[in-house]
């Protein structure tokens, strides 16, 4: 390719899913639900396609979805969002992240990233010419300190990229942590790009707190969401960004030459879905919480040390109890080939100081699949 920024390995999710298929393993690696998604949302999409709603929609997104997103912000977080100027629909959160970083970063700008981090972040920061500065979260609670932020922020900091709830660590940031972060963002006159795709998947009565809702942060944050996570429809790739016009405009400029638009029929179905009743949103978290407990109990019984999971549909397990040799990816490959169960090495979410004994399991699967995986692990260890 001739560009160092694009000279990249194949993403770990694709690598492990292919390996899993090859070995006919139970795939608890790549994060995707194995259910069909809400029937009424599917129905709205099918009707929209058949009724002919299939041409380019407006570049910013269909009015119905933008209005639904403004209403969603008000309903869940008390945010007052202007659907005409403060909402952009993208082809998945992946595009939202890419457009946000390409739109906001100038070459040489510093970007604060928290490790572990989702695998698309660093390549896009680099592609935009940004200079990454890392904060390494400390297991098992994935905490950070004021001193960590002092070391990462500088007068060159343009933005911080935060993922809350955090994949793969399953951490939900506390209000105190968000306040500390907000203090630094304001002190260094920076912005925050907030990847909140798991906003509706939080456990044990927790509340998700968008950084945007903290004092002084409304006009410094872009908030990113994904219908893939909120409606268990990862293949649809309907994502969205909300934020003040001065931040959103450059993102929209990047978006117009990345994908330009996102399928209108799917947007209409997501607009409908965002209006579903409270029981739907509560049920998403409670259903997944039960699955978290089911898999975590099973893994513990097999001998894994299981870390807490406060949100997302992932749980991290420490494999040290198995007399492990220090290479988490090799461990995951062996587990796939020999035990018939696939997980993702957590080291893949780090660029430095990677822990080497953590692996991530996805529990957004039918109960019999989770039980089958635990059964295979029990037989293997
Ligand atoms: N950010 C995080 C933290 C994710 O886990 C995912 C899920 N793959 C994405 C972004 C991408 O979301 P989408 O599928 O909507 O592009
Ligand atoms: N977000 C999903 C995960 O963390 C995977 C998405 C992808 O395959 N790129 O597993």
How would you characterize the overall build of this protein?
The longest helix has 25 residues, at 278-302. The chain is α/β, with parallel strands linked by helices and 381 residues long. The protein has a seven-stranded mixed beta sheet with strand order 2-8-7-6-5-3-4, with helices on both faces. The radius of gyration is 20 Å and the shape is globular. The chain folds into two domains: 4-30 and 279-380, Aspartate Aminotransferase, domain 1, CATH 3.90.1150.10; 39-276, Type I PLP-dependent aspartate aminotransferase-like (Major domain) (Aspartate Aminotransferase, domain 2, 3-Layer(aba) Sandwich), CATH 3.40.640.10. The protein has helices spanning 12-22, 39-50, 63-77, 92-104, 121-127, 146-152, 175-187, 227-230, 245-256, 264-274, 278-302, 328-339, 367-380, and strands spanning 26-27, 87-90, 110-115, 131-136, 157-163, 191-195, 221-226, 239-243, 305-306, 314-318, 341-342, 344-345, 358-362. α2 runs antiparallel to α10 and α4 (92-104) runs parallel beside α5 (121-127). The protein is 41% helix and 15% strand. The chain has 13 helices and 13 strands. Bound molecules: 4'-deoxy-4'-aminopyridoxal-5'-phosphate and glutamine. Its cofactor is pyridoxal 5'-phosphate. Its EC number is 2.6.1.7. Keywords: Aminotransferase, Plasmid, Pyridoxal phosphate, Transferase. It holds the Pfam family Aminotran_1_2.
């Amino acid at each position: 390719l001739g560009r160092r920024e694009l000279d990249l390995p194949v993403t770990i999710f694709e690598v492990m899913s292919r390996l899993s298929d090859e070995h006919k393993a139970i795939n608890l690696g790549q994060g995707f639900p194995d259910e069909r998604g809400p029937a009424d949302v599917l129905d709205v999409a099918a009707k929209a396609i058949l009724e002919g709603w299939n041409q380019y929609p407006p570049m910013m997104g269909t009015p119905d979805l933008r209005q639904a997103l403004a209403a969603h912000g008000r309903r869940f977080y008390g945010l007052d969002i202007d659907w005409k100027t403060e909402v952009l629909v993208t082809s998945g959160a992946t595009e939202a992240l890419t457009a946000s970083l390409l739109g906001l970063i100038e070459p040489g700008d510093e970007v604060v990233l928290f490790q572990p981090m989702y695998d698309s972040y660093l390549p896009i920061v680099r592609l935009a010419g940004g200079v990454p500065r890392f904060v390494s979260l400390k297991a098992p609670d994935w905490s950070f300190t004021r001193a960590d932020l002092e070391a990462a922020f500088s007068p060159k900091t343009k933005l911080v990229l935060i993922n809350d709830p955090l994949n793969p660590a399953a951490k939900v940031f506390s209000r105190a942590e968000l306040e500390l972060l907000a203090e630094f963002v304001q002190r260094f006159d920076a912005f925050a790009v907030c990847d909140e795709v798991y906003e509706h998947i939080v456990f044990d009565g927790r509340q998700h707190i968008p950084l945007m809702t903290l004092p002084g942060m409304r006009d410094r944050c872009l908030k990113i969401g994904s219908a893939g996570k909120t409606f268990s429809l990862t293949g649809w790739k309907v994502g969205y960004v909300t934020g003040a016009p001065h931040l959103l405009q450059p993102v929209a400029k990047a978006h117009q030459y990345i994908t330009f638009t996102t399928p209108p029929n799917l947007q209409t179905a997501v607009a409908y879905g965002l209006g579903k009743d409270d029981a739907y949103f509560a049920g998403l978290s409670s259903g997944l919480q039960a699955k978290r407990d089911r898999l975590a109990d099973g893994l513990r019984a097999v001998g894994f040390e299981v870390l807490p999971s406060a949100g997302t549909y992932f749980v991290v397990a420490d494999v040290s109890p198995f007399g492990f040799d220090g290479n988490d990816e090799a461990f995951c490959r062996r587990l796939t080939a020999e035990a018939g169960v696939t997980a993702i090495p957590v080291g893949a979410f780090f660029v430095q100081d990677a822990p080497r004994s953590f692996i991530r399991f996805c529990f957004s699967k039918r109960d019999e699949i989770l039980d089958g995986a635990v059964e295979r692990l029990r037989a293997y260890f």
